[in-house]
Amino acid sequence: MNAPAALLAISVILLLVHIFLQAFLTTRELGRSWNAGPRDGGETPKSVYAGRAMRASANFRETYPAFLALMLLGDFAPNNIMLTVAGGSIWVLARIIYIPLYLSGIPYIRSIVWLISIFGLVIMLVAAFWR
């Protein structure tokens, strides 16, 4: 498996971690019948950790499409694939580190890690135009 494909696979695993973490914490609070039901009541979890998991997941999904687009662009039109992989690696690692920081409620460092992930996307964007 080449590096772009590996990063894409890891990113999908990371997406699944977000989905299952959010689902686990929400189900633990609201119960299995809520999870299995139609969720028509609009109930949302009130616990700190379930709320943080929801917000961390939403935050991940805000930048995930950009990562996917830039990684695929770098793989299909490899102007500078090494730079694309470097930026993608930074984004993936920062997003992995971000989860426990967000769940722990650690301010500032979490924001710095988020900025590092954005820096990874910028590197990937530069790679798309680098000749």
Structure description:
It is a single chain. The protein has 131 residues and is mostly helical. The protein has one domain: Membrane associated eicosanoid/glutathione metabolism-like domain (Four Helix Bundle (Hemerythrin (Met), subunit A)), CATH 1.20.120.550. It contains five helices and no strands. This is Conserved protein, MAPEG superfamily. It is found in: Membrane.
Keywords:
5 helices, 131 residues, MAPEG-like_dom_sf, Membr-assoc_MAPEG
Rounded mean pLDDT score: 93
Q: CATH topology, what is it called?
A: Four Helix Bundle (Hemerythrin (Met), subunit A)
Question: Class in CATH?
Answer: Mainly Alpha
Biggest sheet overview: none
- Rg of Cα set: 17 Å
Structural class: mainly alpha
Write the layout of secondary structure elements.
Elements: H1 3-30, H2 32-36, H3 48-76, H4 81-104, H5 109-129
Subcellular location: Membrane
Protein name: Conserved protein, MAPEG superfamily
Keywords: Membrane, Transmembrane, Transmembrane helix
In short:
The chain crosses the membrane at residues 6-25, 81-102, 108-130. 82% of the residues lie in helices and 0% in strands.
